[in-house]
Amino acid sequence: MPNDQNPRGLYFLADLANAARAGAGDEEMRRILREHRAPERYLAAEPAEIRPAAARIADILEIDEPDAAAHAINSLLADYPARPTLVQFPGRPWSMHSRPPEDADPEYWLLAKAALALGLWLSDRGRCAWGRCAAADCGRFFIDTGRRQPQKYCGTTCATRTRVAAHRQRR
């Protein structure tokens, strides 16, 4: 699984939240778990066990006010303690990961991971460095990795399409 502090772990959460909001099927949910290298025991889980957690993550990604986000993340940490631990993968620096109890179900694993990752990201950035795309026809969740101006769009395609539409409307 990607490092909880590294944006790649946060991209996993955004992908799951987007899938949950889009009503993704079982195969799409499994694809996301495989793509983001979920632990083997969670790859075998039924997507129905993952969907409620993905929806709860989406609810947090909707929050754009730091105090409200911190409260929601703290609630998640209270319900699903992350039990952080330092891990070093070959050729990589030490990084913080969540380690759920050995008998944790997929929902517990995912929400503990989300609580730690989002909490670290909020504390590192000092703001909700995530959001929903501002493009009128998109609304996908994204992780804001920039350091300057807060991100408004999920990617360059939506940003460009919005700017072109605004330019055409002004003409």
From TrEMBL:
Listed Pfam families: zf-CGNR
Signal peptide: none
Top-level lineage group: Bacteria
Record-annotated Zinc finger CGNR domain positions: 131-171
Name listed for the protein in its UniProt record: CGNR zinc finger domain-containing protein
Lineage: Bacteria, Bacillati, Actinomycetota, Actinomycetes, Mycobacteriales
